[in-house]
């Protein structure tokens, strides 16, 4: 087991990277065969098991596949750790608060007095800065990894630790000026919305209204019996736990069935109880370059067709995930695998490349 590699996942897991897609080829086969082809590719890339869910117009389909080592195939109710896709839940909660008049996107970040908010230049960090990774905050608090368990790197961190870490934190850029992915920023966004009650707030404002019962940071007994075992480099590893920065998605669980409900709401906000908030999250709020704009939580990149792909990926020490959709073509895809992986200097993580390519194919069909 590569201890350094595992710790690096805590720093870099699911950082948003725009992908340039190649030309999609619309397959002539039916949807199950198409999904099966992508599942086979996920297994070939080293995943012990994989599950994939798609939406194509009015049709929804979920299938899973297990590897050759006797791993059973997951299904739509199999529980995976979700990782940073859950940042889009936190962003949705922010959007609900904005629509309700409880805060503003340009409101400054405010925390209890013992949590000093770093400053650089005349402009304070705002809520929209946190939701678009333009706050200037580092990826993690500077004191988080000191003494951390490499197999569960957030579990030891406390509110006292966060207060001390913020006193040591400096901003790399002035708020609102440039993009740098930050788990710390989204963790602080959750604390600003519901101090020390983040997980309950996300259930109340996002997952419960969207009927996502298995999307939670706390495993119920029935969920534990359905949970996939996470892996790193072929070896089983424990789940991540996070009592402080969970709004960044570091300890969230979900299923393909729940994620299709979430993606369905993204495709048809008019049929969702969170319509106004969802529309606000999908609106571009910051432009990085021609291949990447940022909504609240969401990344916006072009598909081969020229339509917009809205997406986010996720990862913990033993799981990798990606979700993407196209409003224009009413298509969506989510893939969840029970192994950790990282982007390389030559390409993205396999789960990201596969999910984006599948959506590109569905969009072109």
TrEMBL record:
Residues 36-343 form the Beta-lactamase-related domain. One of its GO terms (molecular function) is hydrolase activity. It comes from the Bacteria. It is an enzyme of class 3 (hydrolase). Residues 1-26 form the signal peptide. Coiled coil: none annotated. This is Serine hydrolase domain-containing protein. It comes from Streptomyces xiangluensis. The lineage of its organism: Bacteria, Bacillati, Actinomycetota, Actinomycetes, Kitasatosporales.
């Amino acid at each position: 087991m590569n201890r350094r590699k595992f710790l690096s996942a805590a720093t870099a897991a699911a950082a948003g990277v725009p992908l340039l897609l190649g030309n999609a080829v619309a397959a002539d086969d039916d949807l199950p065969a198409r999904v099966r082809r992508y599942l086979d590719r996920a297994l070939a890339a080293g995943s012990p098991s994989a599950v994939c869910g798609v939406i194509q117009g009015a049709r929804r389909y979920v299938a899973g596949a297990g590897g050759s080592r006797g791993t059973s195939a997951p299904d739509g109710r199999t529980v995976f750790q979700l990782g940073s896709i859950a940042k889009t839940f936190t962003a949705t909660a922010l959007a609900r608060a904005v629509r309700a008049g409880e805060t503003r996107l340009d409101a400054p970040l405010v925390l209890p007095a013992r949590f000093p908010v770093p400053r650089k230049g005349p402009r304070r960090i705002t809520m929209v800065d946190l939701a678009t990774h333009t706050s200037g905050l580092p990826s993690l608090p500077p004191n988080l990894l000191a003494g951390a368990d490499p197999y569960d790197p957030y579990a030891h961190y406390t509110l006292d630790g966060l207060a001390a870490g913020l006193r040591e934190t400096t901003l790399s850029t002035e708020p609102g000026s440039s993009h740098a992915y930050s788990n710390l920023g989204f963790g602080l966004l959750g604390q600003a919305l519901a101090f020390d009650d983040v997980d309950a707030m996300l259930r109340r404002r996002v997952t419960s209204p969207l009927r996502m019962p298995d999307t939670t940071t706390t495993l119920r007994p029935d969920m534990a019996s359905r949970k996939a075992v996470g892996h790193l480099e072929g070896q089983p590893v424990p789940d991540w736990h996070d009592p402080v920065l969970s709004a960044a998605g570091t300890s969230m669980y979900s299923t393909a069935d729940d994620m299709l409900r979430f993606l369905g709401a993204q495709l048809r906000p008019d049929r969702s109880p969170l319509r106004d908030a969802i529309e606000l999250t999908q609106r571009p709020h910051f432009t990085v370059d021609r291949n990447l704009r940022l909504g609240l939580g969401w990344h916006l990149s072009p598909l081969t067709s020229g339509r917009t792909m809205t997406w986010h990926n996720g990862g913990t020490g033993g799981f990798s995930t990606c979700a993407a959709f196209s409003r224009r073509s009413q298509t969506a895809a989510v893939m969840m695998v029970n192994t950790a992986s990282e982007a390389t200097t030559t390409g993205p993580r396999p789960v990201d490349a596969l999910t984006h390519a599948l959506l590109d194919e569905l969009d072109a069909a």
